[in-house]
Amino acid sequence: MREAHPIERVVGMEYYVSDADGVGGHLRASPEDFRVTELEAFDTSPVDADTGAYPHLVLRVELHNWDTNDFASALSDRLGISRERVSWAGTKDKRAVTRQLFSVKGIDADDVPDVDGTDVEVVGRAGRPVLFGDLAGNAFDIVVRDTENAANAASVLADLRAFAGGEGTEPRDGGPEDSDADSLPDGESTVGVPNYFGQQRFGSRRPVTHEVGLAIVREDWEGAVLAYVGNPHEREPEATQAARSYVDETRDWEGALDRLPRALGYERSMCHTLVENGAESPEDFREAVETLPTNLQTLFVNAAQSYVFNRILSARLERGLPFDRPVEGDAVCFADSDAPEGLRLPDPDRTQRVTEQRLRTVERHCERGRAFVTAPLVGTETELAAGEPGEIERDVLADVGLEPGDFDLPGEFDSEGTRRAIMVRTDLGVDRDGDDLTFSFALPKGSYATVLLREFRKTDPDA
User: Fold this and answer.
1) Angle at the Cα of 446 (from 361 to 406), degrees rounded to 5?
2) What is the mean pLDDT of residues 49-72?
């Protein structure tokens, strides 16, 4: 196996599964180079349905270079309504062209305003808002520009086809074995990658959210504040690094307010709270963390779970255990029968422990895309696997100093946990135009396009 980029190793992604050299190149040279379309899983009624029973107007919006949260705020401002009346199914990156669902409570179709950089289609009405997770997945068309060696893509593709295993992994309409070693197949190939949580889960430029989350789960509230407000990173501007270093060295929260840039509003809010309360007790530091938006508080704990999950996957790779099929002791989940055609969507609520007697049967289910090997997103209700997979899970938890019961936390920080497929398969098309490569594929919700692309690029994820 090939070691990952250092900044990826920080968040638990320690390896690439492809040993081939990467293509390098640049992501998001323009927003149009990163196109995302939600695969919808939300039913609506006609737009003229009774507004009493169906108070939410559902919109399909194409955003050009818009952050999802920023668009929701702009939309609510234009409508003159509370931001809380706008909801959506999935948060997307800003530098992209995205097509996604939103719902707005208590407005008519004629009320929808024009917002620059958007195209809005009224879909219908619903009895409840569109909520996070109300999608089956996302389809991607992504261009990697100015690669150093686009010919390497064929070798990476072959490695990822092999990693996918199972049935139906041969390329469609030809493949590398039918052409030169550096040639790409004309059609799609079924590929697989570890279902890592991508860099953006932890902070693309400053990956610290998992460090904050780990401190919270340990109920080290001062440590959580320092991980977020202090803890400088070399990718930040020098003035920001200096301000964070000052925090680490002095714990002078009032002095930090004089040094932290105005743009760091969350950090400054935490410092204000500590100055007001005196910063003398764990409760003062906990209150500082709780000044942050509730979704960010939840994100911290989710990032800690994601980091542990990534570590478990990396340890499984180290031990040479398969990802496409189970070994004795694994826990698998089954496919969601309501998933759109062609999308392999795991259902983490339907799990089964793999025994010696059931091993071959479950292997066949995995080969055919009907079941998926899982690892835990650890929480209070987590049941760890048995056998060697369980040994890996316990070793990683011991190394980070956590156990499932630690997630019994106050407020937004509590988590019951779940399980998540350890590998994601997709039918991938790759087209070459000189030094540019275009990747077309679909992923189930919660999986990251950048985790697939990192295998091809093998470079700084921020490049």
Assistant:
1) 85
2) 95
CA distance 300 to 108: 37
Report yes or no: 312 and 375 within 8 Å, Cβ to Cβ: yes
This model's pTM is above 0.85: yes
Mean pLDDT over the full length of the chain: 93
Q: What is the pLDDT of residues 246-280, one digit of tens each?
A: 999 999 999 999 999 999 999 999 999 999 999 99
**121: nearest Cα among 129, 112, 111, 108:** 112
Place of tokens 């969601």: 336
For tokens 């309504």, name the residue: 81
Angle, to 10 degrees, between the axis of helix 209-217 and the axis of helix 221-229?
170
Nearest Cα to 90, choosing from 82, 75, 104, 100? 100
Q: Which of 93, 134, 159, 330 is catalytic?
A: 93
Nearest alpha carbon to residue 297 among 308, 286, 312: 286
CB atoms inside a 10 Å sphere around CB 451: 22
Those residues whose C-beta lies under 8 Å from the C-beta of residue 45, and which sit 6 or more positions away, are 54, 124, 125, 126, 127
DSSP state of 26: B
141 is annotated as an active-site residue: no
The amino acid at 140: F
**Could you tell me if 163 and 453 are in contact, meaning their C-beta atoms sit under 8 angstroms apart?**
no
